[in-house]
Amino acid sequence: MTTVYLSLGSNLGDRERHLQRVIEGLDSAGLQVLRISSVFETDPVGKLDQPRFLNAVVEARTTLLPRQLLARTAKLERRLGRKRLVDKGPRTIDIDILLYGGAIVNTRDLTLPHPRMTERRFVLEPLAELTPGLRHPIARRTIAELLACTMSQDCRKTGIELRVHQTGMP
Predict the structure, then answer these.
(1) Is 116 a catalytic residue?
(2) Which residues in 115-128 are b (16+ Cβ under 10 Å) and which e?
(3) Which of 15, 21, 94, 120 is catalytic?
(4) Which of 21, 91, 120, 121 is catalytic?
(5) pLDDT digits (tens, 9 = 90+) for 33-55
(6) Domains in the chain and their CATH numbers?
(7) Which is deepest, 23, 27, 119, 127, by most CB within 10 Å?
(8) How far separated are the first and last CA of the chain, in Å rounded?
């Protein structure tokens, strides 16, 4: 099994419930959730005229290959109401694959590690909470070191706690 890290974000509707529903749906998508970061509230990036986001990172294990994982997370997004109407626009849910073990993938539809994760505090803050000493496979810096370079970006920890849905998956 491969350890993967997924970034979750929501800025429409019941944001907390959307994040919790993703975690519940990851099991049926072929992932075993191990840990979930705290939830952070952040300003939008790119398209600024939209509501604030709730963001979290999930550590999970899977036997899925990277492209299979991408297909499953995209299917889960659609099942939970994600509509891609505006690039970087508001969304009920967004699931990004940040890291897939130490794999480096560069295809038309998938780039791993996530190409912009090193620039985004809303990704690095919750990821550093789970695994500060993990080294980025390309930047070769730890997540904590990368986070230190993004501290000027707004990112506030909330009191929201997401729960792991336990099943019998090995």
Answers:
(1) no
(2) eebbebbbbbbbbb
(3) 94
(4) 91
(5) 999 999 999 988 877 678 999 99
(6) 2-157 (3.30.70.560)
(7) 127
(8) 9
